[in-house]
Amino acid sequence: MPAETHSTHEPIGPDEVFATVRTHLSEILEIDDATITLDANFAEDLNADSLALIELVEALEEDLGERTVGFTVDDEDLGDLATVRDAVDYVVSRLGAGAA
Known about the structure:
Blueprint: H1 14-29, H2 50-67, H3 84-95
Helix pairs in contact: 1-2, 1-3
């Protein structure tokens, strides 16, 4: 049986990306996911340090890599992600999914 070389799943939109980010952040930071909003700043509002962001990236790459072959987050882009919205927008743009 040949290895899967492409994604057969539907495109992932901003709402689903946000839900995924929120779920992982709540587990990593051990906080209620209801406290994680799009406008929340990782450092100031969520007390997320760089290690927590790396854990988030690893979790997203694992989850989204299953749906979109080759999905990665560039290490040099991490510094540009200050808010949850920044992360969601970044992931959506990397996935090639536009806001409908």
